[in-house]
Structures are given as C-alpha cells and as structure tokens.
Write a structure and sequence with these properties.
The complex is a heterotetramer of chains A (107), B (323), C (546) and D (221). Chain A has 107 residues and is an all-alpha fold. Chain A has two domains: 63 residues; 31 residues. The radius of gyration of chain A is 20 Å and the shape is flat. Chain B is α+β, with helices and mostly antiparallel strands and 323 residues long. Chain B is built from six helices and twelve strands. In chain B, 44% of the residues are buried. In chain B, strands 3-2-1-5-8 form a five-stranded mixed sheet, covered by helices on one side. In chain B, strands 4-10-9-6-7 form a five-stranded mixed sheet. In chain B, strands 11-12 form a two-stranded antiparallel ribbon. The radius of gyration of chain B is 27 Å and the shape is elongated. In chain B, 33% of the residues lie in helices and 19% in strands. Chain D has 221 residues and is mostly helical. Chain D has a single domain, classed as Four Helix Bundle (Hemerythrin (Met), subunit A) (Up-down Bundle). The longest helix of chain D has 36 residues. Classes of the chains: A mainly alpha (107), B alpha+beta (323), C mainly alpha (546), D mainly alpha (221). The interface between B and C is large, with 90 and 107 residues. The complex binds heme-A (HEA) (2 copies), dinuclear copper ion and copper (II) ion.
Chain lengths: 107, 323, 546, 221
Amino acid sequence: MSGHHVVPVRVYLAVFAALMVFTAITVAAAFVDLGALNNVVMLAIAVAKATLVVMFFMHVRYSTRLIPVVVFGGVFFLLVMFGITMSDYVSRGFLGAGSAWPRPWAP
Amino acid sequence: MPFKIPFMPEQASSMAGEVDALTLYLVAMASFFTVLVAAMVIYFAIRYRRRSPDEVGGSFDNSALLEITWTVIPVLIVLFTFVWGARVAFRLYRPPADAVQYYVTGKQWMWKTQHPTGQREINELHVPLGQPVKLLMTSEDVIHSFFVPAFRVKADVLPGRYTSLWFTPTKTGRFHLFCAEYCGAEHSRMIGWVTVMEPEEYQAWLASVPTQGSPTAAGERLFAQLACHTCHQDAAGAKGPALGGLYGRPVALADGRTVLADESYLRESILNPAAKVVAGYEAVMPSFQGQVSEEGILELINYVKSLPAGGSASVAAASEGAL
Amino acid sequence: MSRTGTAETNYLNAQHGLKSWLLTLDHKRIGLLYLMGVSFFFLLGGIFALLIRLELLTPQGDLVQPDTYNRLFSMHGIMMVFFFLIPAIPGVLGNFLIPIMIGTRDVAFPRLNLASWYIFMAGGSITLLGVLAGGVDTGWTFYPPYSSLYSATNVLTVGIGVFVNGFSSILTGLNFMVTIHRMRAPGMTWFRLPLFVWGHYATSFINVLGTPVIAITLLLLVLERAFHLGIFDATKGGDPVLFQHLFWFYSHPAVYIMILPSMAVISELIAAFTRKRVFGYHFVAFSSIGIAVLGFLVWGHHMFVSGQSVYAGTAFSLLTMLVAIPSAIKVFNWSFTLYQGSVSFDTPMLYALGFIGLFMIGGLTGVFLGTLGFDIHVHDTYFVVAHFHYVMVGGTIMGYLGGLHYWWPKITGRIYPEFWGRMSAMLVFVGFNLTFFPQFLLGYMGMPRRYHAYPEEWQVLNVLSTAGASVLGLGFLLPLGYLLWSLKYGKLAGKNPWGAKGLEWTTDSPPPTENFRDAPVVSEEAYDYAGAGHGDGGAPAPARAH
Amino acid sequence: MSHGHSSALAHHFDSLEQQREASTLGMWLFLVQEVMFFGGLFMTYMLYRWRDPEAFAAGSHDLNITLGLLNTVVLIASSLTMAMAVHSAQTSRRRPLIGYLTATGVLGLAFLVVKYFEYSAKWEHHLVPGPLFHFSEPAIGGRAEVFFSLYFAMTGMHALHMVIGIALLAWILRGAVRGRFDASYYNPVENFGLYWHFVDIVWIFLFPMLYLIGRHYHGGA
Ligand code: HEA
Ligand code: HEA
Ligand code: CUA
Ligand SMILES: [Cu+2]
C-alpha cells in the first residue's frame, strides 16, 4: 500500500539542504530593502519551505489522495478567514470620512 | 408613506416608512412559504396517512425537475430580497449633504449629547423637525449602540473610533432612545429620549439652555489651554504644520503614504501623533492621551475643522462623505 | 438468528459497576454518559431561562438586581449553547448510532471518545465553578472591551471552561470523520449512508475547522484580561471589532453545528414514519455539505451595525442569502417525502413535523436578519432572540427530542408511553410558540435584548411570553419523567418496533457490546422501503398497495 | 510482512492496514485543527501589522536575529532527525531509531533553552507587555506593545507545543527502547513525526514574520 512508502534517505538530506538554503536566502533578502517586495519574498520562501516539509518530511507526496485534500482544505478555510476579515478593514475607508478605522489610503 | 400597522413602532423619520415597507415584503414572502409548506405537509400527512400496520410508502423519491424548481425560485427570491435590503441600507448609511452634525458620547451608563451650537444634554437629545441630523459618536469605555426604534436607526458606538448615523425626523414628539449593545450592569438603564420639536420651538429651547459656547468655541479655548498654538501657528518656521483647511484634505506623510484628514485622523493626530507624521516635520508633538476627555477631543476636532484654509475667511465647507 | 434482545447480554448488562461506566470505551455507553451530562446542563440552563422570564413578567425589573439578571442570561446562553446544544445530538445520538449505522464495532478512536467526554465534563465543571463563584455577566458572546477590562465577574474561569470544552467538540468531530471515512462496513458506500451520517459528517467538518478559532480567540481574551496585552483594546492600538470577527468566524458555523445534527435526525424520522426513502436523497446529503461550507462565509451578518465596513456588510448579506438555499432544499424535500408515503403520527413524527414548521419560521426570519436594511433596526432586539430560539429550540431541540424518542427503544430496549409522548410533543409546540412568537413583535417594536427592565407598553407581550415559558418548561419536564419511568416499566421493544429500515434496526435492542452478532454486509440503498432499489421519478410505483 | 504485533491491532479494526490509515487521517485532521488554531493568531498579526507597519518593524528590530536564526536551524535539523527516525522505524532498525529520537529531543530542548534566553532578555529590556513595558524609541513608544504581545502569544504558543512535543517524544522513545516499533507497526512514531514537523512549519513562518521584518528599519520615519 502507498502508505508504506519508505522515502530514501538522500531525499531527506536534499530537502534539509534546500531548507537551509532557503533560510539563508530569506535572511539575506531581509537585509536588502526591496520595499513591498520584501514581504512577498519572505512569504514565498516560507510557503516553499512549508511545502517541502509537508510533501517530503510529512510524506504527503506518497500518501493517499485524501490527505492532500484534507491539508489544502484546511489551508483554504484559513485563507477564507484572512481574506474576508481583511476585506472589512480594507474597505472601511472607501466611503470617506467618519467611519474608517484610521488607515492610510492613496487618493 | 405613513401607515399604521399593529406591532410596528411609530414611524417618525424619513426612513421609517422604507424600512417598514421592506418588512412588509419580508413578512409576505415568509407567509407565502410558510403557508405553502404547511399546506403541503398537512395535506399529504392526511391524504397518505397509514392505513394498515405493515403498509409502506411509494417509490417516487426523486425528481430533477422539482429539485430545480425549488432551488431556482428561492435563489431568485433571496437575490431580490438582498438587493432591496442593500438599497435601504445604503440610504440609511449615507447622510444627506445638508445634514447637521451633532455629537454623541457613550459612557457607562449614559448618553452625552452636544448640539452644534454647544448645548449639552444627558440621556436626551432635542432636534428640530425636518432637519437631517447626523450624529458623530464615540465611546469613553466599552461598546454601546445608539438605537431609536421610531427612526429605525442603530449604530454601535465604539471606543477609540468614530461611527455615525443620520435621520430626518418627520414627527414631533418624544421617542425612546436605547443602548442596544450590552455594556454592563446598567445597560438596560442607559436609555433616554429623543425629542423632536417644531423648528421655532427648538430655537426657543436652545436659547433657554445655558451654554458655554459652541463646541468650536470650546475647542478654541482648549486649544489655547493645552498650548497647541505654540507649535501650530500660521507662521513660517513653526514647529507644527498650519491646521487651516486641513479637514477633508489628503495629507502627505513622512513615510510616503497619504491619508485623508477625517475625524479619525485628527483624533489620532492628537492622541497618537507619532503614528502618522506629516511630511516635512519632526515627530516632536507630544501625545495628549489622558489629558483631554473624549468630548474635549471632539471639541478640538471641531475647532480644527473650523479653521479656514490658508487663513482666508471662508470656513472650509465640511465635505463630509457618507458615514 | 432468532435472538430476542434483552434476554441476551447487551452493552448495558455486559459489565457492572460505576467503574465499568466511567472507564468504558464503548461508544454506546459514552453516548449515555453524554446524555447525563447534557441533560444536567439543559436543566440548569432552563432554570436560568425561567428566572429570566420571571424577571421580565413586570417592566420594572424588580425580581433581581440588574447585574444578577446579566449573569442569568449570560449563564443561560453559555450553558445552553456550549454545554447543551452543541454536544447534545452528536454526543448522545451521534455517538450511539454512527458506528451502528455504518455497520462497525466502534468509533475509530474509542479512547479519544471517552477523553472527549471527560474534556466536556471538565470544561463544564470549570464553568460551573465560575457560576458558583458568582457567575459571569458578559453575555455568551464575550465582547471586549467589556469582557476584557470592565466586567468584574468570573470571565477568566468561564472563558477557560468554554475553551477546554472546545477540544471536546474538536476531538468528537475528528473521531466521527475518521470513523465515517475508514470504518464503513463492506457494501456501505457513501451514497448508501443514512442521511443521519451525512449530517454528522458535515457537522464534524465544522467542528474541526471552526472550533479551534474560538479556542484561540478565547485564549487571547483570557490573556488580554489577565495581562492586558492590548490586542482588543483600542487605547493600546488594538481593535475590539477583531474579536467579533474571530468570535463569529466560529460562532456562525457553530449554529450549523447545532442544527445539522438535528436535520440529520429529521431525515431519519421522516423516512421511518412515512416508510419511504427520503425524497431527493442526494440533494439532502449534499445540502448538508453545502451548509457546512457556505456557513464559513457569512459570519459578518452578526456585525452589520458593529462599525464594520458597509461593503463587507453587503457582501456578507449576499452570502447569507445563499446559505439559506440548502436549508430550503431540505425543507422542501422532507415535505415532499410525505407524498405517497405511509404517514403515521407517533411521537417522533410529531416532533419532526413540529421541527419543519418551527425551523422554517426560524430560518425565514434568519433571512430577514440577513437583509441589510432590516437588520439595522432589529439587531440586538428581541427579534433576534425570537429568531434564534425558533431555530435552536424549535429546530434543534425538537429534533433532539424526536430522535431520543425514536431511538429510545434501541438504546434502552423499552418503549416509552406513547400517550405521554404525544402530550409532551403538543405541550412543547404550543408552549414554544406562545413563548417566542410575541418576541418577534417585541423586537420589531424595539425592545432591546439583554434588558432587565423595559418600558411599560410592552408588558402584555412579555406576560404572554412568560406564560408560554412555563408551558414549555412543563413540556420538557414530562419526558424527563416518563422516559425514566419507562426504563423500568416500559414495554419490551424488540428489534424493530417501528418497522423501520437501517442497520440499527437489524440488531438487538439494546445492542450487544460489539453492536452486531454477525458483521453486516450492506447490499441495498438507505431507506429501501419499496423494496426494489428506488424509482427514477415519473409514475408512482404501486408499492403503497401492499 | 510478519504480524508479530497482532496485539497492536485494536479489537474494533479489521486489519492493521485499516487501523494505520485511520490513525494517519486522524492525525492530519488534528493538524488541520492546529492550523486553524494558530490561524487566529496569524490573523491578528496580519491585521495589526497592516495597520501599523512601522511599529512592527521597530519592534522586530529589537529581536535578536542571531538567536532566531540559530533556532531556525536547530528546529529544521530536528525535523530531519525526526524524519530519519520514522525512516528507521519503517526499516525496523531499532538502534538508529532510538538515536534519532534522542537527537530530536535534544534539539528540541536546545530550542527551548535558546528561547528562554531570548525571553529573559526581553524581560530585562522592559519589552514584556504590561505595566512595565517601555519601548526606547519615543516615536514608536507604546505602539510597539501590540507587536510584543503578539510576539509572546505566538512564540509562547509555539513553545508550548514544543514542550508537549518533547513530552510525547519521551513516551515514544520509551516504546522504541522496549522494541515496540518495527516495519509492521510504527504509526505512533509516524504520527508523532507529523506533529513535530507541523510545529517546525509554524516556526518557519514565525521566524521571518517576527524577526526579519525590521532589518532595514532605522528609527524615525
Ligand atoms: C441553530 C441555530 C441557528 C440556525 C440554524 C440559524 C440559521 C440562520 N440564521 Fe441565525 N442566529 C442564531 C442561530 C441560528 N441561526 C443565533 C444563536 C443568533 C444570535 C446570536 C447572538 O447574537 O446572540 C443568530 C443570529 C442571526 C443573525 C444576526 C442578527 C443580529 O444579531 O442582528 C442573522 C443575520 O443574518 C441570522 C441569519 C440566519 C440565516 C440566514 C439562517 C439560515 O441558515 C436559515 C435557513 C433556513 C430557511 C431559509 C428556512 C427554510 C426554507 C424555506 C422554507 C424555503 C424558502 C426559503 C427562502 C425563499 C429563502 N441569524
Ligand atoms: C440551546 C439554546 C437555548 C435554549 C434551549 C433556550 C431556551 C430558552 N430560552 Fe434562551 N437563549 C439562548 C439559548 C437558548 N435558550 C441564548 C444563546 C441566549 C442569548 C444569551 C445572551 O444574550 O448572551 C438566550 C437568551 C434568552 C432570552 C433573552 C434574555 C435577554 O436578552 O435579556 C430569553 C428571554 O426570554 C430566553 C428565554 C428562553 C426560554 C424561556 C427557554 C425555554 O425554552 C427553556 C425551557 C426549559 C426549561 C424551562 C427547563 C425545564 C426544566 C425545569 C422546568 C426544571 C425546573 C426545575 C426547578 C425549578 C427545580 N433566552
Ligand atoms: Cu450602553 Cu448598553
Ligand atoms: Cu449567523
């Protein structure tokens, strides 16, 4: 059965190396001022690292179909929480003065 | 459209009729479905009642046509309902341009109100008939909610922020004012009255109430008292920016962002000046947190709002967007 | 196999002694443990409710002090929601029935199941401690900054109690999901599952995804109160409205945690008492999933006047409208199941019919509340109170009682007295409407909720409501009496007293510890009363002519 | 595959296979639950950072990036040793299993020790939210408090998970020493591994979000 898949040790080592490299990049990038891009890079790298851990260390790549569905389902609802809540705050200023939780906007 | 239906509170604002019309539609819609389903259930239950102990039911147990019918029709109905409800709501949110601003501060457990001309009241608010009124509201402690059933308006009143609501009274009389958001022991006693008067009567009433001057005047006094003017003077080389004509204008900040100078921004500038530093100035303004009451802040804001642009005579017309 | 129930060993008499109950891993016994727990909390919550209604008999607020009143409705809401309604149907009926219905010996993780009960009781006990120490007065919604900085009551204790209890829900949901995925008997495909199981699957999904969010939110609240972190404090740059977002992110889906299991019961009752397959099986099954998923997108309808953005409010209003559709589909399908059925009016069916009517009114008034322009006026008034009692009491409790009566013979091996059953169903129905219908009117007239005193013009309707509550209380007390009575004196039930379909009716009453003497193999659709699979619409089949 | 472990099969399962799949699914659902649990904290972080990026950058500036980086490396390394432990169990090698589990535990403890030094430094610098809180930069002042509240809430919750993890690890290790696990039965090891990796992933997000956002913050504005 798929669940008994034994992942070769070199895969683990490769993943570990990749995680280390990503860590180095993310720290290095943090010292360079990229403006808003800093956040994008930081998050992209964190997501990539997490994906590696999930796929290889946690064997999702080798598991039955149900497991990825569960994982991505969970992440999806997390994004729903983030997205909808932020949409409230972002749109509070739209109507102009008065109600906005003080917040910058570009005219 | 004034009409009187039992169990409806008095209609005393320009929006009350619109809300009630929506309500009547909703009740009609719900009655239709309730009667439909009840009739169906009762009829089937009697018509197909069990006649012998080992009888079983028929095998007609699905129909795509029926499923589509009773999915699509409710979808259309709720979409229609949504649109109607949203239209009413947007009208409830957007005050007319000629609305006059009053001030409300919620505090455990009382409503403090102030007229544009400076008169203060507690748990009472007098307003003239036919005049659109906008309330700018904040709380000194917990969340409260300003609710006048006869006007069909309600809005939460939050600490650290301004919210607003508006109404145009269409009927004279005294109307219940409730706090609708639970706020502690005396929540149910945080109640009062909104009194709607004929305009002349209102003027007479205003004259009869002693006042220390308009909020703007009070703000001016505070401005001097707190020594704001030492930095904010319309002179070159002043430590702080000139405040004339500030309200309603976008302000460029030191970090490159731009903010709209609305009440919330002014408030933040006084309580937490370092949060948004104006481009070209040092962040030397001290915080006045704890030194001015919520009402004091409102008065200061009022005063700042009244300052004419560039020292010229015309008071910047408050271009108040909707809420 | 011609064994006849109670003479044999069954799960009740297989072992004796308190220890055999407190350490049991048998899902059926755990179900009974839950029955005791939730009944206790229901009675407690009910007593608080009666005191609320007594106070509201007169406008002056003369029975108790305002802060006592505030504790009453807070504890009433907290007990009823967190310690009764959420655990009731999954804990009692779900636990008892899911493994039997899918043809297996137990849930996937029996030890975890028992742990869930202990966590539930621990959470309940901590909360009770808070109650005994003086209660809490924040409302069941715990809004800061009142709860974090101003309330002088036991917010910490109760908050921790509810927090702990959350893990019971999460673990039960997890257990059910794994059980349904991995433990089905041979031949029990997804679309042969009874709708009861589908409903609980959808519920479990919400439990696993939603409950942790309220857990962390309450934890933040507790930390805020204890250490003044500033996270929900406007004077420190936090936002109290964020709490509301996080709270309702769970607590709206939680209302579906409360109703979906009840809907699951209703599907079973309708099928059994019409002796007919539930109309539109697939639609009913998928609408449960639809409710669970859409239910996560609408929480902001509790915040229309909270200072939330108008645009967000509009979007929430639209989504709220859509979440009503799957419920509508269910109501129509249940009603149409009666068509060409063989309808009998035993007690469970009376509850089921009552459910349809009351849930419909509750649900439709929910749609009212989702309508933006309407909600601004009635938010935080008795209209909302009436709405949610229609769905929670008229809906969930009706379903719970219906289910309890229906499976009582299976659970205990005894039949309850039918006459008293029907009496209580009628009393509940009448008392319920008398209690809560006037509250719609009060709400529209403007009576705010959580008010200890109110203007005199509203007294008449309040008196009606209080009168109704006493009838309702009686209606709830009756079953407590006669169900206990039937344990000893009820008629023996036999395997299948209702002539119903479903694996649970093929095993003994009460079932043996391992549920089935021979492991079942499933070869037919659910509710296959007509005998030959199921028809494809079109001409009515002649099966009724038996 | 020999079934030397029929005692490992609980009575209500039909096969070890079914039991294993059930426990794996259960563990994943538990982790999804954990994702939502931490999600509430991340939501709070996101909102307040969006609202006051400067205060967050200033607060972040005061965290010790060297220790943060060290802990990141320690934790990722412990994830590797944990993966290797599962590998050893899958291939029925008891000694390496014990070794890797021990290594994982030691690395976990190392993480906590570093965390302890970080926390005590914060305490000394008055960066713990509460009445003693004091942020040295006047332009930011009390605004940084929410950042530190979140710093402690998030890393504290993470550390709590580490502590629980280490306790569980001790229990797994005991099983390993007694030879309970081999290729035919290792799902406790595997499931514990899932938990441990999850805790690692949380840190993978916490590290850049808390430590790295203030690197080019130079005070003032
Ligand atoms: C069991 C619990 C339960 C259930 C199932 C529901 C179901 C629904 N609820 Fe309710 N609700 C609560 C419990 C519940 N609610 C509680 C406890 C509160 C108050 C919390 C507090 O503040 O303390 C509340 C509050 C509440 C509010 C906030 C009110 C306010 O505070 O201002 C709103 C607003 O949208 C709402 C909407 C809905 C909707 C649209 C549904 C829908 O799911 C209903 C769907 C059902 C139907 C629609 C009926 C059947 C359909 C037909 C008969 C067909 C025809 C239908 C159409 C044409 C639409 N609810
Ligand atoms: C499952 C949920 C549930 C249930 C079942 C009930 C059941 C009832 N509820 Fe409640 N209710 C809530 C959930 C529920 N409620 C919630 C969430 C709130 C909001 C709280 C808040 O604002 O924070 C609320 C609020 C609420 C209010 C509003 C309070 C206010 O805003 O000021 C009222 C007022 O009438 C009320 C009444 C009732 C009544 C009469 C019942 C009846 O159905 C109860 C009938 C049951 C009994 C009566 C028990 C029978 C037992 C006995 C009779 C034993 C008696 C024994 C002795 C005296 C020894 N409830
Ligand atoms: Cu103020 Cu309620
Ligand atoms: Cu809701």
